[in-house]
Design a protein that fits this description.
single chain, about 20% helix, 2 helices, about 150 residues, five-stranded antiparallel β-sheet
């Protein structure tokens, strides 16, 4: 249900919005050299709101399904490389789009890497990946790239 303008809500002190849809206003004119009044600005807002509402009710029916407006989500995992790891000083951005696996045959694809922070409290690099097989990498397992 579209909301329609209710003059009784805003045509009171201090707003004085006397917009009338029957007058078919499409423009508010200002006189040069005069200050803009709050009443004129309020009417501009109402005119714009009314036009947007008309476009919306013209294009979309109430309750119509909008295609392509869904939410897609994906669970991704991450691994933090400690500063004692062999790769902690290596730029890991070359791993993006590479397949990785561990000794137990669990596979994943690297989606993104995050370089270490310059803060001494967290200098770890982070590798974000999505599993392509069942299972999870276990803590302390050795993970390597597959292929070239």
């Amino acid at each position: 249900m579209a909301l329609s303008y209710d003059a009784n809500l805003f045509n009171i002190n201090p707003y004085y919005d006397d917009f009338d849809e029957d007058k078919k206003f499409l423009r508010t004119l200002f006189r040069p050299g005069r200050a803009v009044q709050a009443r004129e600005l309020t009417q501009l807002q109402t005119v714009l709101q009314n036009q947007v509402e008309r476009i919306g009710t013209h294009i979309f029916d109430n309750g119509a399904v909008i295609l392509g407006g869904g939410i897609a989500e994906s669970n991704i995992a991450y691994a933090r490389l400690g500063t004692a790891d062999a790769l902690s000083s290596t730029d890991l951005s070359r791993l993006v789009d590479q397949n990785i696996s561990d000794d137990s045959g669990i596979n994943a694809k690297v989606l993104y890497t995050l370089g270490g922070s310059t803060l001494p409290a967290d200098a770890n690099q982070v590798v974000f990946f999505q599993y392509t097989s069942n299972g999870n990498f276990s803590a302390g397992s050795t993970i390597g790239t597959t292929g070239a």
